[in-house]
Amino acid sequence: MSLNGKYSVGIIFTFVLLASAMLYSIPVINLFFNFKTFTAELFFYDRLVLWLVLLLILIYNFFLENRSFFAWEDKKYPTKFYLASIIGLYLICSFGGAFLNAAIMIVTQEKISDKMLQLNSIFKSNYFLIIFTCLTAGIIEELLMRAYIQPRIEKIYNSPAAGIVGSALLFGILHSTYGTIGQVVVPFFIGIVFAIFYKKYSNIKILIICHFLIDFISLILLNLVDIKQLSAF
Known about the structure:
Layout: H1 3-33, H2 40-65, H3 79-108, H4 114-123, H5 127-157, H6 160-174, H7 182-201, H8 204-224
Helix pairs in contact: 1-2, 1-5, 2-5, 3-7, 3-8, 5-6, 5-7, 5-8, 6-7
């Protein structure tokens, strides 16, 4: 199989594993633990499954692709660049995402999904779960969607635009498990912003930190304010 063929299989393998984990990990976990309700412990195990997905992709990359996981070498920048990039990305994604979500809710009269209400209940004052969840999302989603998938799509189609849009589209589709249009459109928007940044500056650490902060600040706000008041965000 050609290298592009291995890359294509790797992209499909990654997406299928992530989608399967998000759709079916909780029912499978319940086969062994038989949780009666949606609990913090159940969700913790669900997040652990995502680390297993990352491990499987690393194994595929090492044994079958036989290439560096990072198709683009991570570039180093001054501390000021890190700070400015993280703040800038956070503001763009937070305010841009909030505007898009608010517009969608006005046009479609979309309600808060049941899954978001469930998550809100288990995150209340559970700061360990909040931190672990945000670290998991920041590290795994950026490593797989940006560092792994984006440059491989670009290599296959010989098109930076294909890498940016393709990785962002997959990122948005994966979030459809939350049950609302906004939970697809906003991640797609964030995926575009992150992918453009990664193509231009090739630094995954900045994206991991920014992704963590977006999720962490959102979940902390959910602990302080009623979710219905933050629904636009």
